[in-house]
Amino acid sequence: MLTFYHFPGACSQAVFVALEELGLAHRRVAVDLIRGEAQSAEFQAINPAGQIPALALPDGQLLSEAAAILTWLADTHPGADLLPTSPLARARAAEWMSFIGYSLHAASGPVWKPAKFLADPTREAGIKAAGSERYLAALAVAEQRLGDKPWLLGEHYSLVDAYLLPFWHWPQRWRLDLSAFPRLAAWHQRMLARPAVQRVLAAEKDELKALLAK
Fold first, then answer.
1. What is the pTM of this model?
2. Dihedral (C-alpha) 75, 25, 101, 140: value to the nearest 10 degrees?
3. Residue 214 pLDDT > 90, yes or no?
4. Can you name the residues that pair with 151 across neighbouring β-strands?
5. pLDDT for residue 123
6. DSSP letters of 151-185?
7. I want to staple 5 with a disulfide (CB 3.0 to 4.6 A). Which of 1, 54, 122, 148 is the partner?
8. pLDDT band at 160, cuts 50/70/90?
9. Tell me: the pLDDT tens digits for 98-109?
10. Burial class of residue 208, CB neighbours in 10 A (0-12, 13-18, 19+)
11. Cα angle: 25, vertex 27, 32; to 5 degrees
């Protein structure tokens, strides 16, 4: 059985959605980022990078990095048609996933944990604001790239859509104004209509509640 290391609401949410879309049996292990479990010796023995998501395969190998895991899941279940196979369409999928990982994920760090980027704590508000501006600028690019298409790659849902999902939720938690992105907002409503997404959000809500109650 697959073992999936994640944290509710983190970028690992994309992999959770993929597992649900495919109906794959798996053991789910919540790595408590609030209490720093990702940096524990126990977890780093599993993933030396100390990051989630991570997916332990039945043969003992470990896959890390959301884009790599999503690609592996799609390629090992080709009948589900969750990533395109033609060269240009595949490149477009990689283009989107690289954009999400760099332009959005990288910009989120100063917003989530500004203290990690500064020696002077009095400047935390400034770097958090700068990170928020950079994040909104990246969302503007995503809004333009999405255009009038229903899904990021066109007419068909893919795991690229799953990858973007948590990155749309984060700025809502930061209380950023997202009114400039009506196309992404409409895309999000389509995502919320998917049963797999509904199951993941409900499960993560319960898991987060349990973690916070510790």
1. 0.95
2. 100
3. no
4. 154
5. 82
6. BTTBSS--HHHHHHHHHHHHHHHTT---TT-HHHH
7. 54
8. very high
9. 999 999 999 998
10. middle
11. 140
Burial pattern 159-186, b for ≥16 Cβ within 10 A else e, equals bbbbbbbbbbebbeeeeeebeebebbee
Asked if pLDDT for residue 121 goes beyond 80, the answer is no
Tell me which residue of 199, 182, 212 sits closest to 13, measured CA to CA. 199
Write out the two tokens for 84: 């395109």
Task: Write out the two tokens for 182.
Answer: 């009506």
Q: Given this model, what pLDDT does residue 125 score?
A: 86
Q: What pLDDT score was predicted for residue 102?
A: 94
